[in-house]
């Protein structure tokens, strides 16, 4: 197993700021926009972006939620293990809002497909966009593309992209692991 | 742990503590789901479930059906009253006929203790026991403990008294197993005639004085007198039972502390508890019903994920 650094802490920080600015450009003051982090790993990215937008770019209020997609996945009973859920926390309605789904890695697109179904339980959004830190292009099983992407990666199927966050894993770093 | 250690839910007796914790954690997520504006998830789209009830039920049947539908399973219902059982069909034949219509899971209530266990041995489907005679009613016990956990944060160390007809009650037996497994202290209280001999062997104490029992407990689970199962006279009159083992507001207010009142339903108002107790803020009876759907969703989801 080999492991190489794809993005360092400094590079991640620059990319996060760029993504925050792109969101700001499209959504201005975020009055009609909500950010939804896809559980479990999209939560950290959503938290970070919200913090940057509020602390550094003066956005007053952002509706931020976390969405668990376990019960909407298309691989129920197909793997060996029971799919374990994590917490959903969405304290607002997404009716007529612009929703930005946020996840760390976009791979097959199946999680996003599940998230698109799941979010409908909270209302009918006027628009849904997708933001992802790492886009593993050429690996898609579904016609899903991000609106905002941090970095495009040409990883092959037996490689794994691992995103680590300081608040959860001790440091910000992204690895490409060859299994 | 991410998987149940069993393939059927036949009784609490067959579960481990980790199984119950997994069911509770999963039910937490489903409780959030059923409080959304759209209360349905697509997980079980390709699962067919048969609800087979050989005995009457309102709450349990509705609760199971709602849980199944909220998981997007396909549901067929069967009540013994209008069926070929009356024409002399055996249990295995009835169920195998239903299974040949490609059913993956069977939820069954039956008047004979052990009916679920018998079925699990002979047919190829996941079985959920929704009550088998005076034996077990596992989902009721799970939702009762889940409701205690919701109220107090934890079940371990809590004092729970089960009041009423312990002898004929499947709710009592399943509750005792679940509460003991989760580390609660359990007492049973009722007329001596309605408390089984050797009940201490299950690790519970007996108390025949209701006031003492209530003063000891954090939670009182009030059971119904099951007139349909009382073959002989176990106590002189209902009136006398109520005087000795019924909870009313005066008794509740005179206790040393505020206790929580539970009831598995259906309530005989004025017998085991009075209306003002059932509707008081100390009662969590309706929370139990709501939690019942979340618990049954969790059980069905976890068992269905083991069907290959």
Would you list the SSEs of chain B in sequence order as H and E? HEHEHEHEHEHEEHEHHEHH
- Count of separate DSSP helical elements of chain B: 11
CATH level 1 name of chain A: Alpha Beta
Q: What is the domain tally of chain B?
A: 2
Shape of chain A: globular
CATH architecture grouping of chain A: 3-Layer(aba) Sandwich
Beta-strand share of residues of chain A: 25-35%
- Helix and strand run of chain A: EHEHEEHEEEHE
Architecture blueprint of SSEs:
The complex is a heterodimer of chains A (179) and B (308).
Chain A lengths: L1 E6 L1 H19 L5 E6 L3 H14 L7 E5 L30 E9 L3 H10 L7 E10 L11 E6 L5 E6 L1 H4 L3 E6 L1
Chain B lengths: L16 H17 L14 E6 L5 H12 L3 E6 L11 H9 L5 E6 L4 H8 L3 E7 L5 H15 L6 E5 L6 H12 L3 E5 L15 E3 L2 H7 L2 E4 L15 H8 L3 H5 L6 E3 L12 H4 L6 H20 L4
Descriptive terms for the model:
heterodimer; A: 179 residues; alpha/beta; five-stranded parallel beta sheet; 4 helices; globular; B: alpha/beta; Rossmann fold; four-stranded parallel beta sheet; 9 strands
Description:
- The complex is a heterodimer of chains A (179) and B (308).
- In chain A, the strands form two sheets. In chain A, strands 3-2-4-5-6 form a five-stranded parallel sheet. A three-stranded antiparallel sheet of chain A has the order 1-8-7.
- Chain A has helices at 9-27, 42-55, 110-119, 166-169; strands spanning 2-7, 33-38, 63-67, 98-106, 127-136, 148-153, 159-164, 173-178.
- By secondary structure, chain A is of the alpha/beta class.
- Helix content of chain A is 26%, strand content 30%.
- Chain A has one domain (8-157): Rossmann fold, CATH 3.40.50.2020.
- With 308 residues, chain B is an alpha/beta fold.
- Chain B folds into two domains: 12-137 and 289-304, Aspartate/ornithine carbamoyltransferase (Rossmann fold, 3-Layer(aba) Sandwich); 139-288, Aspartate/ornithine carbamoyltransferase (Rossmann fold, 3-Layer(aba) Sandwich), CATH 3.40.50.1370.
- Chain B is 38% helix and 15% strand.
- Chain B has eleven helices and nine strands.
- In chain B, helix 2 links the parallel strand 1 (48-53) and strand 2.
- Chain B is globular.
- Chain B starts with 16 loop residues before the first helix and ends with a helix.
- Chain A binds chain B through residues 68, 70-73, 76-77, 81-88, 93, 117-118, 120-123, and chain B through 2-4, 26, 29, 32-33, 36-44, 46, 71, 301-302, 304-308.
């Amino acid at each position: 197993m080999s492991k190489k650094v794809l993005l360092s802490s400094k590079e991640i920080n620059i990319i996060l700021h760029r993504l925050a600015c792109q969101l700001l450009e499209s959504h201005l003051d975020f009055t009609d926009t909500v950010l939804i982090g896809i559980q479990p790993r999209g939560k950290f990215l959503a938290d970070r972006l919200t913090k940057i937008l509020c602390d550094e770019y003066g956005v007053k209020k952002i509706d931020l939620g976390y969405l668990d997609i376990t019960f909407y996945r298309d691989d129920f009973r197909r793997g060996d293990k029971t799919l374990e859920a994590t917490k959903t926390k969405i304290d607002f309605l997404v009716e007529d809002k612009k929703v930005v789904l946020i996840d760390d890695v976009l791979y097959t697109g199946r999680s996003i497909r599940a998230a698109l179904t799941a979010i409908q339980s909270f209302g009918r959004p006027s628009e849904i966009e997708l933001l992802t830190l790492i886009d593993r292009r050429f690996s898609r099983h579904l016609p899903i593309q991000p609106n905002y992407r941090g970095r495009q990666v040409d990883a092959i199927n037996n490689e794994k992209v691992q995103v680590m966050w300081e608040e959860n894993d001790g440091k910000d770093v992204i690895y490409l692991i060859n299994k | 742990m991410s998987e149940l250690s069993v393939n059927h839910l036949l009784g609490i007796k067959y579960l481990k503590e980790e199984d119950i914790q997994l069911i509770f954690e999963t039910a937490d997520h489903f409780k959030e789901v059923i409080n959304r504006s759209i209360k349905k998830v697509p997980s079980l789209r390709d699962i067919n479930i048969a609800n087979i009830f050989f005995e009457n039920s309102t709450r349990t049947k509705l609760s199971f059906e709602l849980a199944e539908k909220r998981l997007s399973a396909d549901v067929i219902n069967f009540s013994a009253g209008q069926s070929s059982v009356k024409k002399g069909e055996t249990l295995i034949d009835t169920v195998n006929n239903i299974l040949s219509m490609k059913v993956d899971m069977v939820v069954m209530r039956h008047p004979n203790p052990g009916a679920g266990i018998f079925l699990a041995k002979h047919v190829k489907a996941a079985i959920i026991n929704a009550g088998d005679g005076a034996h077990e009613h596992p989902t009721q016990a799970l939702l009762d403990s889940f409701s205690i956990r919701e109220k107090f944060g934890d079940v371990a160390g809590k004092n729970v008294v089960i009041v009423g007809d312990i002898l004929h009650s499947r709710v009592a037996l399943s509750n005792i197993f679940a509460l003991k497994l989760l580390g609660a202290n359990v007492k049973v209280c009722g007329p001596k005639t309605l408390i089984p001999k050797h009940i201490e062997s299950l690790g519970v104490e007996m108390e025949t004085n209701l006031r003492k029992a209530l003063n000891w407990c954090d939670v009182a689970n009030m059971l119904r007198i099951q007139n349909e199962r009382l073959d002989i006279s176990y106590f002189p009159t209902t009136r006398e039972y109520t005087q000795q083992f019924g909870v009313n507001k005066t008794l509740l207010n005179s206790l040393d502390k505020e206790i929580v009142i539970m009831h598995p339903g259906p309530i005989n108002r004025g017998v085991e508890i009075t209306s003002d107790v059932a509707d008081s803020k100390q009662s969590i009876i309706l929370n139990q019903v709501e939690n019942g759907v979340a618990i049954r969703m969790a059980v069905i989801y976890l068992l269905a994920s083991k069907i290959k």
